[in-house]
TrEMBL record:
Family membership: Belongs to the shaker potassium channel beta subunit family.
Keyword Oxidoreductase part of the UniProt annotation: yes
Native species: Lysobacter korlensis
Domain of life, per lineage: Bacteria
InterPro entries (UniProt xref): K_chnl_volt-dep_bsu_KCNAB-rel, NAD(P)_OxRdtase_dom_sf, NADP_OxRdtase_dom
Gene3D superfamilies in the record: NADP-dependent oxidoreductase domain
Pfam families (alphabetical): Aldo_ket_red
PANTHER family: HYPERKINETIC, ISOFORM M
Name the record gives this protein: Aldo/keto reductase family protein
Keywords: NADP, Oxidoreductase
Domain NADP-dependent oxidoreductase: 17-314
Stored CDD domains: Aldo_ket_red_shaker-like
Length: 336
């Protein structure tokens, strides 16, 4: 495993992060989920990402159990706040001071830890003044419950405003967690340049485009049994945008590139993401332990200019690049 500094800070994270968004507490049984976490540890992964909204807090519980007994100082545990949790009442959502202070306590209890290394605003809250949000974050940092703060799917302007307030409050906003892959490049035009200027890194999610970039889905063919595209608990809905023949055909054009390099298609996709200097870590998920080790090996893949050119020729024209889509990822109003 390789480790990279997170933003303009002294803390390092593993270049591959293990995340449990669509798996723990929902699609994968607890024993299998715990086995995947242990496989991540065996692969040298030290950074683990979750959120209180995942499986309505159950994912945090599973991760806490899986990491129980590990040396806490050797881990970077990251979680997030925003989405509706619990009974999903009128204050069980958003980035208000009330919700943040109550949510961090619940997350710490479920994760079985006294602090989290990185606490992230899961989306931008249009209904709460950003000053209130950042003050609440600063307070829990000073209470020792959080070491660093981050955001997820914020626009360049929102990141800049949040960073300025964090500086005024004497805390470190060091990361953004956006979607990023060969097929989804909406952060390249605005978010990445702004983040690089401010000393903020990306911890990217869905670098394999929900598994599509592994090449397991072929145009005109039914999805493999047991794959995410056949999952009725939410996986099929999330992957639907990529299940189009032109995209699947483009992905298959990546296969000979990966073969020439002697790597899997998943490793190719992860290596492409990690080549971006502003990306500190790429989040992977897994339903089987063996998937973890294979994907973690992507940190040793070096893509030269020729390979990058071939990749661009294969799928570059299919990639979504509209920077405006970042703003659309945050709801126009709270769900509750």
């Amino acid at each position: 495993m390789k480790y990279r500094y997170l933003g303009n800070s002294g803390v390092k994270v593993s270049a591959v992060t293990y995340g449990n968004w669509l798996t723990h507490g929902s699609q994968v049984e607890n024993d299998a989920a715990i086995a995947c976490v242990h496989a991540a540890l065996d692969a040298g992964i030290s950074t683990f990402d979750t959120a209180d909204v995942y499986a309505n807090t159950v994912a945090e519980e599973v991760l806490g159990t899986a990491l129980d007994g590990q040396r806490r100082e050797s881990l970077e545990i990251c979680t997030k706040v925003f989405g509706p949790t619990g009974p999903k009442g009128h204050n069980d959502v958003g980035l208000s001071r009330k919700h943040i202070l109550e949510s961090i306590n619940g997350s710490l209890r479920r994760l079985k830890t006294d602090y989290v290394d990185l606490y992230q605003a899961h989306r931008y809250d249009v209904e709460t003044p950003i000053e209130e949000t950042m003050q609440a974050f600063a307070d829990i940092v000073r209470q020792g419950k959080v070491l660093y703060i981050g955001v997820s799917e914020w626009t360049a302007d929102q990141i800049r405003e949040g960073h300025e307030l964090a500086q005024e409050l004497g805390v470190q906003l060091i990361s953004n967690q956006p979607q990023y892959s060969l097929l989804w490049r909406v952060i390249d035009a605005e978010v990445v340049p702004t983040s690089a200027e401010l000393g903020i890194s990306q911890i990217v999610w869905s670098p394999l485009a929900q598994g599509v970039l592994t090449g397991k889905y072929e145009p005109g063919a039914a999805p493999p049994e047991g794959s995410r595209a056949t999952d009725s608990k939410g996986g099929a809905d999330m992957i639907a945008r990529w299940m189009k023949d032109d995209i699947l055909e483009g992905v298959q054009r990546l296969r000979p590139i990966a073969d020439d390099l002697g790597i899997s298609m998943g490793q190719l996709a992860l290596a492409w993401v990690l080549k971006n200097d502003n990306v500190a870590s790429a989040i992977i998920g897994a339903s089987r332990p063996e998937q973890v080790g294979e994907n973690a090996a992507a940190v040793d893949v070096e893509l030269d200019d020729e390979a990058m050119g071939r990749i661009e020729q294969a799928v570059g024209g299919l990639a979504e690049r509209d920077a405006a889509l970042t703003a659309k990822s945050s709801p126009a109003q709270r769900e509750a």
